[in-house]
Amino acid sequence: MSEIIREIEAEQLKKEVDEFNVGDTVKVYGRIKEGNRERIQVFEGIVLKRQGGGARETFTVRKSSNGIGVEKTWPVHSPNVEKIEVIRRGKVRRAKLNYLRGRVGKRAKVKEAIR
User: Span of the secretion signal (predicted)?
Assistant: First the structure.
């Protein structure tokens, strides 16, 4: 039974997913439907966490919009996510950056990883 489920999940996975990690600054190109029209909206921010695995894997991105923190969670393999573009790599030492929620301005920055 679980073999069949794995095969079905494998079919639904995206083939080309950009490599990104927690702490990276990314641009997420998300499809939005408004009535009968469809457009792409860009959401740029820091990846706070990645959860799950396989077809259910999700990631959360946080940005500051007019001084207010905004977080959005997307499934990595969703057809509504057009693409994920990494702008800069972050140097972090933990898997989830929940501490950034209580910080504003320069304190909410993540150091850039030099590679």
Answer: none
